[in-house]
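User: Could you go from structure to sequence for me? I need the amino acid at each position, not a summary. Structure tokens:
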């Protein structure tokens, strides 16, 4: 089975997807849990660092990376 290819998307779109997966800066944990419950998604708690995230949306982030233009102007040789 071939792994799914990694897809590059614009940075703004990637940040939007990350905001859906993790609680917002000022968002209370209870509000994040309610948001996940309303979307019928499971919540995952990392036992090592106690980070909370939306399990289904996190799986969707595995195959995408933010696309950045070549900011350092390195040569292609």
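Assistant: Here is the amino acid at each position, in order:
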């Amino acid at each position: 089975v071939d792994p799914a290819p990694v897809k590059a998307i614009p940075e703004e779109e990637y940040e939007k997807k990350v905001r859906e997966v993790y609680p917002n800066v000022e968002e209370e944990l209870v509000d994040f849990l309610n948001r996940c419950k309303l979307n019928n998604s499971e919540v995952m708690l990392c036992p090592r660092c106690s980070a909370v995230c939306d399990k289904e949306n996190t799986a969707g982030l595995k195959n995408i990376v933010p696309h950045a233009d070549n900011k350092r102007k390195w040569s292609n040789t």
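One structural detail worth keeping in mind: The chain has a mean pLDDT of 80.
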